[in-house]
Amino acid sequence: AWGGGAYAIVHVFRGGDGSGGGDAPIPGRAIGAVWAPIDASARVLTLNFDAPERLRPRQKVEIPLQIDGAAGDFVAVTLAAVDEGVLQLTDFASPDPVDYFFGKRRLGVDIRDAYGQLLSDRVSQILNLRQGGDAAGKHAAGLPHRWIKPVALFQGFLKVEKGRVRVPLELPEFNGSLRLMAVAATSGKVGSVAKRVLVRDDIVLSGSPPRFLSPGDRAEMTLTFHALEGGAVKLAPKMTASDAVSAEPTLGEIALQPGQRLTRKVVLRANEPGSSLLVMEVDTPKDGKRRLEWPLTVRPSGPLMTQSEPITLANGADLRLDARLFANFYAADARATVAFSALPNFDLPGLISQLDRYPYGCVEQTISTAAPWLYAGDLARTLGLGLADADAQKLRIEKAIGQVLARQTFDGGFGLWSSNQQSDVWLTAYALDFLLEAQKQGYAVDKFALERARDKLQNYLQGAEFAGPDLHRKAFAFAALARANAVERGAARAFADGYAEKFPSPLAKAQMGYALALAGDGARAQRLLTEAVDQARAAPASGPNNRRLRWESGDYGTMLRDKAAILALALDSGLTLNEAPQLAQAIAADKARARYLSTQEQAWLLRAAQALVKSQGPVMVTADGAQMLPIPAGAMAYLRADADARNLAQGVSFSNKEARPVQGIITTIGAPRAPQPAENAGISIQRNLWTMNGEAVDLASIRQNDLIVVDLTMSVAPEAFGNVLVVDYLPAGFEIENPRFGQSSAAAQLAWLENLSEPDHVDLRDDRFIASVDAQSWRSRFRLVYLARAVTPGDYVLPGAFAENMYLPNAFGRGDAGRVQISQR
């Protein structure tokens, strides 16, 4: 059982005479370790490729593989063919099962002794330890940016006959190097082989489109024609673009001499948001008609906008909607829901649509945006939000579960953005509540993760000090543990009796009432929930002045969120609460007044709406004489600006056939056509562009391959303190060079930058820079810096930088928009 070998550890000692004289021996000690491998040749298979040095793309080929040493045993073989350029980005090492099973192992022991205490230090000295290497230094410089289409092909468990197998591969449109990697194993032997092969046409065609465009952009796409083999040739390429992009095909005839490489420019113009396919077709002498395709997305130059309008439709009354509904939005991405209800209307379809489109994902946002699929999955599928069936919905929720569990910290709690952050008690209770609901609905949730989260909250309840904000966390911890059937009824009673009157919010009372209801103490639960509902009804309408922020209470909440959560918990408790309908009316009124809603508000409004309508039937409202889509306690229509353009041009009429008035909400979501002006609603944000030497950048004279320092400065007013999300949309033609300047190798070149802030979280995306900071009274000014490189020549929209309090979205700031030009170097 030696495995791959063993370490020999050698100690050498040298004594001294203790005199300390100049010629006296100096006491010392040395330790060494050497790896002694075993001879594993009897357990190794020998593999060899008999593949040609060059292959042609767009063909089905067979790669011969010879396996020696199997001696008639069953052989399992896999082969992967991967773009060599992709593998080199991460220094990927080809699979080597021999090294895995028989290679050198890290020495897994510590050496501890007291010899050093026995040696005289009067004449001795401590030597420097000789170890390490310089392999990491080669990654100091960034790799050049290239447009690539990765290739990764795989064939597994192939049939081997007499030590040979021919592996079929379908090669795509690709010019470059492929690394062939084969692994084989028998019951007692393993082996592997890797080989690089060239995949290339006689005439190599390539193109470098931008990663995306925005409406109004003009980009110059470079096409390359390279005659590597063969004689002189004349080509007549044709370039086309579909839908959202138009291309100016000014290529003309191209005459190539042997070995010659020529480039041509194609001007692309983005019209409206959507997807486009760029296509180049060209006839070649040897390969016939060639067709190259590049998908290209036209992205709105800023965030989507949501508009909600409440209406009341009397008995027999009509409402007519036409194309003006989407007049201010680009048609390709505009959607609207028209929802009617006989109950207070929370606009359930609109909430689902908004949560589904939310693009960011801390733990709270991941849970909240999964709420439509967990609590209202049938209606979400009816709305057609990208999930065609229950299987797709299942995958959506499973993905959310995985993302949440990936951020569980070492102590069982959950960090907002990462498992490396300090765990948050309120967030842990929210995550446990979500995971338990998912498990209840039949989804697989790791039991150990649930136990760790439960233990985290139980330990917190045993050791928390009862300061004001802590009462919120403690109450939610009791509620989450009650769902896990892990709450101690006596402890919950003692906490409720001793601290209920000190709760800083009625939500804590509702959470304790909910916990006690699940624990079987109906009397206390009824009292606490009734008091919570009454206090929520009496609370003033939600607005900027009574929205509690995370830095104060640690519960990501506002009064509107609290009211919705109180109603949801009260209705889910199973108790009868006569004042719940009045609270629902107050919530509907508060929602109608809110300009923007946070994910917390939307998620709890959705849960409250679902609980409110469980026992209600649909209402009779028709659209152009036809019954509208029935939903719980209501009816709805889902309109799309593109698919329903003809109907909207003629107008759509909605008629109330009920004997009573019905409440309605029209919610429109889309990308605004006009750029949004700069605005300061509690947050001021400004963007400056600098050269690497600290000089201001002229937006009209940036050259291709220039490296730009993007400098975001932000000031947060007290009413906007809390978790602030900063989003800087890139103009097309640029690519982010480094997501976090503080970790950049270019930091030494930019010593002139001062007072930089360290964000809590940074997310690098193809089209935007995202950072999260925690604004407090002692830290309200921020400076965030990242690097962007000018890649594609053109004239582009420069969106304004944007920042908002994630849980108080009425507090936001938007910078000035403009245009930027990149010229060819």
Give the CATH architecture of the largest domain.
Answer: Alpha/alpha barrel
How helix-rich are the residues, as a percent range?
A: 10-25%
Beta-strand content? 25-35%
Total number of domains: 4
* Oligomer description: single chain
Please tell me the overall pLDDT. Answer: 84
Number of helical stretches of at least 4 residues: 18
Q: Tell me the major beta sheet.
A: 7 strands, mixed
Model description:
With 825 residues, this protein is of the alpha+beta class. It has four domains: 203-298, Immunoglobulin-like (Sandwich), CATH 2.60.40; 302-343 and 613-674, Jelly Rolls (Sandwich); 359-597, Alpha/alpha barrel (Glycosyltransferase), CATH 1.50.10; 679-823, Immunoglobulin-like. The protein contains 18 helices and 42 strands. The strands form ten sheets. Strands 11, 13, 16, 18, 32, 39 and 42 form a seven-stranded mixed beta sheet that branches. It has a six-stranded antiparallel beta sheet with strand order 30-41-40-34-37-36. Helix 8 (425-440) runs parallel beside helix 10 (468-483) and helix 13 (522-538) runs antiparallel to helix 15 (559-572). The longest helix is centred in the middle third of the chain and has 17 residues, at 447-463. It is globular. It starts with a strand and ends with a strand. Mean pLDDT is 84; it is low at 128-147, 544-551 and 739-744.
